[in-house]
């Protein structure tokens, strides 16, 4: 064998050796790539397949850049590059299996979970299997070292590799812009499909693309039909049978924190809740409204939105309600139109959806309730399903003088100034807004029972929470903190006794809970990631996400793990209690809970 040449001459063959692994990367992720390509129409597949080749080349180029400084020690470099390449292939294989199983790429949370023996047993990995896998990994790395060192020495050259690497980075930028264009024209299914390989942050440039194409993104019939074919079978609404058909009023309140349900801030709902079921540890699936609404109506985890909604699939529950004789009306003072939810979540209720309401803030809530009364009064004896989405508690926190109860409070002027106010001033104004919504809701429910002659089943929750300076955040859509995820959940059912439910529940549980209360007997696992909330296991963990960025949390009764999807470092997980307070024995608790944490992901596998 030739001796290792002196001087930094191995960079170029090092880059080429790593690029030789691009086809191997594509083969490792082959099943996921095939499934993603099957989810998009044929006209998009060539471009999408080309994007995977570019993405795989980027991964190898990044590895090359990591080894750049070592080229000044050629003997070290000749060993380091093939070792890194071998380790990367082993990591990619593990990541590909994880992605196919749970729809997440490897990150700090999974590394920590899978390092616990109990977690491995949870997924059926025996010590013997682990030993075989480790032996295979070591064998592959040894092969890489033997072949790679020969390659680097044989093709050592004084020519520079930097222009090749720079050219690849330019191609990557073009690919990312192309992926944004594909997403704009082909819908969210293309966005989900473009993230099969790891470390591929989505680029959504709809504003810029609209300037180029002169229109907004639309889901054509071919995109919808092809994408739907790649999803699991949807529950047939005609197969849903209710054994009872009470009126149902579903109340969603913008930005409502769990701690606002107290005798001072919302005294009327607090009093009503004493006769209902209160779910004391309920979490939104996202701190962003459209992801939370997706989970409420589809019963699926928020990270599946791009795949499911991008396929044009509407929630079956609206059709199921109609099939069981319900009159339906969906009135949203908090507009759902700008989030394009009208085309997906409410696609089967376009004629029953009202979201362009008059006024601002709590004035819209008044308009919403006036419209609700027109719907109620026009009905006969048939059951009614009424969805109300209050907006008065959204940022700026609107309320009339009658609810100016807590102070001193921010006056609602100057968004920039609000970010620099004492958080308590914002909180007090938000409490006033919640007090007003509580007042309006009580007036409506009391009158509803009187007019209809019977009490409805009522669901009351928040789409997400709201931060008032916690962790440096104001508002929502920025974190998976308790402030932004922990929301009240109250069910008022005349047929059920009062109760306090301590198990952890989530927005994915609302749909199976509704169907079970109405008597449907389908197993929730056939259509949802959730469970009926009255039967939620005590040791359960639920998932939550920011939504627009891949920041996630796994939340249990006594433990919470927060992680970022692109962080694969062992230190990339923050372990706290559910209120985000550090735990002195956090690592030990995490190790003990690893199997149950993993079960939360396994039970919410990929929707592709």
Trace the largest sheet across and list its strands.
Answer: 4-3-5-1-6-9-2-10
Number of helices: 22
**Care to count the β-strands?**
14
Arithmetic mean pLDDT: 84
Proportion in helices: 40-55%
Q: Which of globular, elongated, flat, extended, rod-shaped describes the shape?
A: elongated
Q: Major β-sheet, in short? A: 8 strands, mixed
- CATH architecture descriptor of the largest domain: 3-Layer(aba) Sandwich
Our estimate of the beta-strand percent is: 5-15%
Number of domains: 2
Computed Rg: 27 Å
CATH class of the largest domain: Alpha Beta
Computed structural class: alpha/beta
Briefly note the CATH topology name of the largest domain: Alkaline Phosphatase, subunit A
Could you write a compact summary of the structure shown?
With 608 residues, the chain is α/β, with parallel strands linked by helices. Helices cover 46% and strands 11% of the residues. It has helices at 11-19, 22-28, 30-38, 42-67, 74-102, 108-114, 117-122, 127-154, 162-186, 188-193, 206-213, 221-229, 267-273, 289-298, 305-310, 316-323, 362-377, 415-418, 423-452, 482-485, 510-517, 586-602, and strands spanning 248-253, 277-283, 327-332, 353-354, 384-390, 457-462, 467-468, 474-475, 489-492, 499-506, 542-545, 551-555, 560-564, 573-576.
């Amino acid at each position: 064998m030739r001796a290792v040449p002196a001087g930094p001459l191995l960079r170029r063959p090092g880059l080429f050796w790593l690029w030789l692994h691009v086809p191997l990367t594509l083969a490792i992720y082959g099943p996921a790539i095939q499934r993603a390509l099957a989810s998009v129409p044929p006209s998009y597949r060539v471009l999408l397949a080309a994007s995977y080749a570019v993405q795989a080349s980027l991964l190898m180029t990044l590895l090359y850049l990591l080894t750049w400084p070592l080229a000044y020690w050629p003997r070290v470099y000749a060993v380091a590059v093939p070792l890194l390449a071998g380790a990367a292939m082993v990591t990619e294989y593990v990541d590909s299996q994880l992605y196919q199983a749970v729809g997440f790429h490897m990150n700090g949370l999974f590394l920590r979970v899978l390092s616990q023996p109990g977690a491995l047993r949870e997924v059926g990995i025996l010590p013997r299997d682990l030993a075989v896998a480790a032996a295979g990994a070591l064998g592959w790395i040894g092969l890489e070292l033997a072949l790679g060192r020969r390659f680097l020495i044989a093709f050592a050259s004084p020519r520079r590799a930097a222009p090749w690497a720079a050219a690849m980075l330019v191609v990557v930028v073009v690919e990312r812009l192309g992926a944004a264009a594909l997403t704009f024209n082909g819908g969210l299914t293309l966005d989900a499909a473009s993230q099969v390989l790891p470390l591929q942050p989505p680029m959504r440039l709809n504003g810029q693309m609209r300037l180029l194409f002169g229109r907004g993104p639309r889901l054509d019939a071919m995109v919808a039909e092809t994408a739907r074919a790649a999803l699991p079978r949807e529950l047939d609404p005609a197969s849903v049978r209710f054994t009872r058909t009470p009126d149902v009023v579903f109340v969603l309140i913008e930005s409502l924190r769990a701690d606002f349900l107290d005798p001072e801030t919302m005294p009327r709902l607090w009093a009503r809740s004493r006769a209902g079921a209160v779910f004391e540890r309920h979490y939104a699936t996202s701190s962003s409204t459209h992801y939370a609404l997706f989970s409420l109506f589809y019963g699926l985890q928020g990270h599946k939105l791009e795949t499911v909604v991008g396929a044009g699939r509407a929630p079956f529950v609206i059709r199921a309600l109609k099939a069981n004789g319900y009159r339906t009306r969906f009135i949203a003072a908090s507009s759902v139109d700008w989030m394009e939810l009208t085309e997906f979540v409410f696609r089967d209720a376009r004629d029953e959806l009202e979201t362009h309401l008059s006024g601002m803030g709590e004035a819209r809530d008044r308009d919403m309730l006036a419209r609700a009364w027109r719907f109620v009064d026009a009905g006969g004896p048939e059951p009614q399903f009424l969805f109300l989405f209050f907006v008065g508690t959204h940022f700026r926190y609107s309320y009339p003088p009658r609810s100016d109860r807590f102070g001193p409070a921010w006056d609602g002027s100057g968004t920039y100034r609000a970010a620099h106010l004492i958080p308590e001033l914002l909180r007090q104004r938000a409490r006033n807004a919640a007090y007003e919504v509580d007042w309006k809701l009580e007036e409506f429910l009391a009158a509803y029972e009187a007019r209809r002659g019977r009490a409805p089943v009522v669901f009351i929750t928040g789409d997400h929470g709201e931060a008032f300076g916690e962790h440096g955040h104001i508002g929502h859509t920025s974190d998976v903190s308790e402030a932004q995820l922990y929301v009240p959940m109250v069910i008022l059912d005349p047929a059920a006794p009062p109760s306090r439910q301590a198990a952890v529940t989530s927005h994915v549980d609302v749909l199976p809970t509704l169907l079970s209360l109405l008597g449907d007997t389908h197993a929730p696992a056939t259509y949802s990631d959730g469970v009926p909330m009255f039967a939620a296991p005590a040791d359960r963990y639920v998932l939550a996400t920011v939504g627009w960025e891949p920041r996630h949390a796994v939340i249990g009764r006594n433990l919470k793990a927060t992680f970022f999807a692109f962080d694969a470092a062992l230190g990339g997980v923050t372990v706290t209690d559910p209120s985000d307070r550090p735990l002195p024995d956090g690592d030990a608790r995490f190790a003990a809970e690893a199997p149950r944490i993993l079960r939360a992901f396994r039970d919410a596998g990929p929707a592709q």
